[in-house]
């Protein structure tokens, strides 16, 4: 636990600083709205193709963070960090969907998931899925919890139920709504639901794609459906707010809106470009400045200490996140993110992002960007990209960024001049000083946080987790592909790739 102990010196006094709500005050309710697979494609963040009035209203009535990032661009690693307030790489929860087989992952002894700390403060803790238009709040909720996806062993008793309706009279609640977000675009009913509930569908011709994706019908249709997923997420946010308002709870509730990583695409989810790690973050409620835009760096690990501060609880010294409401703390000068094994696909990526520059370290750079992966290769957009690549129909930029057989060991981007991270400056002598500085910052972070990814995942752990993947679902072509990918990864690992 060396990484947490080192950081404790930096955070122990911070944890004892005055919080947003004193222990003697009546603490507010706290609602997290956490969304799958979605970048900041909301109109309050500059999205022009669609309108998102409910999320926009949250921003207008609260504080919108423009530089919010996740520490991991994939669900389980991100959520493991979220619920502990610690880097997933420090607590050993960095491999996606790990610890699900015979070999388990346990948190360091001093690390306690946030809901348990909130229970100790007297809160009713709940985690549920999307709101239902026909839900009966008086139904007291149930025990079918919303998405957790933690990579470590945890006690389900940290959640009292799946809806705050089950609380005692007058008891404050900590409620997490887990929305499907970008995953809705893989649901065949979304088109009909958007037309019915939202009145229309986004037109593919109206879509603007990043230049590293071809303007192809499959990709355009997919992105249009993704934007409808953002609109439907907005629709669900409106339902959540309306329920709080109708129950007389809105004015006593802090709402925190965030997504777990960016859009699931060839350079988004699972990767450390801003398409994968930059997310929306909005806070709204008592004690939160209204109509404010905050340009400081924030990360999802900040939600745990911030939530404790709002509840009037002390922030443990082992938490590596920051209380976003403690404005006397000097702003971060950088944020750090990591991607490790996702499903069967071995990977080791690290990044540091300052206001102007992004540095990415590709430790397994002899492997291609789009490594074989049964989950991603099952998506129509990735299938289409591979088809266009094999047919020679991608342009030079798309070929280089998506299908180069190997990647450079280091990537450096000037985000001020190149926000879409197209031009790698790592080999440019004019940026040698910046490269050295960013390389040093990343190395210091890896060391100070005791990055567990610096040592390879054991073959036994990999086999344990792969047994779960191979045991899920039916057989057929996808299972055969998964087996082939597993063997390919083992082979590459033996070769030192």
Write structural notes for this entry.
By secondary structure, this protein is an alpha/beta fold. It contains 15 helices and 11 strands. The protein has helices spanning 2-15, 53-61, 75-84, 88-91, 114-120, 190-198, 217-246, 274-277, 303-310, 374-377, 380-390, 396-403, 432-448, 459-471, 477-494; strands at 29-35, 63-69, 124-128, 173-179, 253-259, 278-284, 292-299, 335-339, 349-353, 357-362, 410-414. It has a 7-stranded mixed β-sheet, with helices on both faces. A 4-stranded antiparallel β-sheet has the order 8-9-10-11, covered by helices on one side. A hairpin with a 3-residue loop joins strand 9 and strand 10. Helix 6 (190-198) packs across helix 7 (217-246). The radius of gyration is 22 Å and the shape is globular. Mean pLDDT is 92; it is low at 5-23 and 133-139.
